[in-house]
Amino acid sequence: MIHQPIETLDRVSFYGAINDSDGFHFYFSTPLGYVEIIGDESYIYQLQFNDNIVLEGKVTLNRFPLWMSPLFHQLNKYFKGEEILFSLPLLTKGTKYQMEVWQQMRLIPYGRTMTYGELASCLGYENGARAIGSAANKNPLPILIPCHRVIGGTGKMVGFGAGLEKKSALLKLEHAILL
Predict the structure, then answer these.
(1) Annotation: CATH topology of 96-173
(2) What residues act catalytically?
(3) Which terminus of the chain has fewer CB atoms gathered within 10 Å of its CB, N or C?
(4) What's the pLDDT tens digit per position in 75-134?
(5) Which helix (H) or strand (E) holds 104?
């Protein structure tokens, strides 16, 4: 059972939070479904679409990390269709190559797309489109690290951990220029 939102700002609703051994878990309702965001006092380290959120009883915390309010407001702006460059404390863990790919993805402007091959070329890996796809698939922070802006070589939508329907909706929200 999903509980009613605790706070609502136009497009994003905050449903609740828990604090366990993995850190803080925050739950939001967005126009594309429910999102779970995990982090600690200092950093956000995971965002995942989760349409099976169940919150038992009233969830309260006596403290929130400093990034919570900026995250909430930036996600709200994003889902209103406002161009935004997320400025949040992110902590990613991955191979050196994955980190390099995710950093390059953050440079893809709002409303623009790039093919997996183009991204590979930017990083100096001329035949690395598949490896880029593999790194994109391991992205722990979709939306915040915009892997949805990376498309197939023919301009087709391919690959997105949350599904192609959500990828298409994110690009439509951004009025993305497709190749």
Answers:
(1) Arc Repressor Mutant, subunit A (1.10.10)
(2) 147
(3) N
(4) 999 999 999 999 999 999 999 999 999 999 999 999 999 999 999 999 999 899 999 999
(5) helix 96-105
